[in-house]
């Protein structure tokens, strides 16, 4: 299949051709050819898959837990796509750990597709390519999509823009990790899991998490009370209104991924959270939030590309910077000169 054969590739992918899925994700990750047309063609076929993001500190056992979770889904005859986001190579931009064997359960199973992708230096751990790869899995018809992130600490917040449910893993006795959660990840977690629960300190770690989540919940309720009103989110099936009293309270679970203990309970909790999102209308709300963030990201990237092209036309950033350093011009004037034509065009179009 040629690089430009997007219609054929889309048809093959939608028809369940695993090789077409692999080629699609490769083209998306490399940002090659007409990958934008490809993603656009797939977009109307997305929105059905249940997307779960799994994050947490290195060593928490994310890969092992994902492996067991995939096995659980396959036992229930559900298809699963897995995106393992690895650290970027500073030399090639590729996934440093991409060649490792991450998931034994996926070997020889055509109901599972595992792809290791590079974070490409993105602070949130997820690149735009990863977001598009989720769309490919979704359009392909995968029942479940699981994203395992790099595990680089509080910067793992971009996962919330892609996943319906965010699972945060913590290992026992990791006091520093629990304290770190206050800095950001605590705010995005829908489910918290103390993995390696057979080790000493698991109960204490779970208790610390529960205490922190209760404190967060109290602060949120205080803010709602301070503003003086209860917000109505949706109407339940029985006609009763649902307000913040129906808000999701993130549970703290314990698992031993190496033995599979607690995995079934985790899967049940994930299904419960999805049902909650659909019942309250929050899934649609999150989808709109993700769409807005994605549009803004693409606008920033495309605008930056246009500016870089114009900079090259003017001799490159070094020449422009030299003029600024010599006081022949200033940064604000340069910015105005570069963006002026775009600003004028938009003003003309809107008039």
Number of helices: 12
Strand content: 5-15%
Low-confidence stretches: 88-101, 226-242
Helical residue percent band: 40-55%
Q: What gross morphology would you assign?
A: globular
Instruction: Please write the CATH class name of the largest domain.
Output: Alpha Beta
Distance between the termini: 45 Å
Radius of gyration: 23 Å
Query: Mean pLDDT, as a whole number?
Result: 83
CATH arch. level architecture of the largest domain = 3-Layer(aba) Sandwich
Looking at the structure, the CATH topology of the largest domain is Rossmann fold
Major beta sheet, specifics?
Answer: 7 strands, parallel
Integer tally of domains: 3
Number of strands: 9
Spatial order of the strands in the main sheet?
3-2-4-1-5-6-9
Query: Structural class, from helix and strand content?
Result: alpha/beta
Order of helices and strands: HHHEHEEHEEHHEHEEEHHHH
CATH superfamily of the largest domain: P-loop containing nucleotide triphosphate hydrolases
């Amino acid at each position: 299949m040629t690089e430009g054969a997007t219609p054929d590739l889309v048809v093959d992918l939608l028809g369940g051709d695993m090789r077409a899925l692999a080629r699609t994700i490769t083209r998306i990750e490399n940002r090659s050819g007409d990958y934008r047309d490809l993603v656009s063609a797939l977009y109307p076929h997305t929105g059905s898959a249940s997307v779960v993001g799994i994050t947490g500190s290195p060593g928490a056992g994310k890969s092992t837990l994902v492996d067991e979770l995939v096995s659980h889904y396959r036992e229930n005859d559900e298809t699963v796509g897995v995106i393992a986001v690895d650290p970027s190579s500073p030399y090639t931009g590729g996934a440093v750990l991409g060649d490792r064997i991450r998931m034994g359960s996926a070997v020889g199973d055509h109901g599972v597709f595992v792809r290791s992708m590079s974070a490409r230096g993105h602070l949130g751990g997820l690149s735009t390519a990863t977001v598009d790869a989720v769309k490919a899995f979704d359009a392909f018809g995968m029942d479940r999509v699981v994203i395992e992130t790099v595990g680089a600490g509080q910067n793992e917040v971009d996962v919330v823009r892609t996943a319906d449910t965010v699972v945060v893993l913590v290992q026992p006795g990791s006091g520093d990790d629990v304290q770190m959660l206050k800095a950001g990840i605590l705010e995005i977690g829908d489910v918290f899991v103390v993995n390696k629960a057979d080790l000493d300190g698991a109960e204490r770690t779970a208790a610390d998490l529960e205490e922190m989540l209760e404190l967060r919940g109290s602060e949120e309720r205080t803010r709602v009370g301070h503003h003086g009103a209860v917000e109505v989110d949706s109407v339940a099936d029985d006609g009763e209104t649902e307000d913040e009293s129906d808000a999701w309270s993130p549970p703290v679970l314990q698992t031993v991924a190496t033995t599979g203990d607690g995995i079934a309970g985790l899967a049940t909790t994930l299904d419960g959270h999805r049902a909650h999102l659909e019942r309250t209308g929050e899934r649609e709300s999150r989808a709109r939030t993700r769409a807005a963030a994605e549009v803004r990201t693409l606008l920033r990237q495309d605008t930056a590309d246009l500016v870089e092209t114009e900079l090259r036309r003017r001799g490159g950033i070094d020449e422009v910077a030299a003029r600024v350093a010599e006081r022949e011009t200033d940064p604000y004037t340069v910015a105005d000169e570069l963006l002026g034509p775009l600003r004028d065009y938009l003003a003309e179009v809107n008039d």
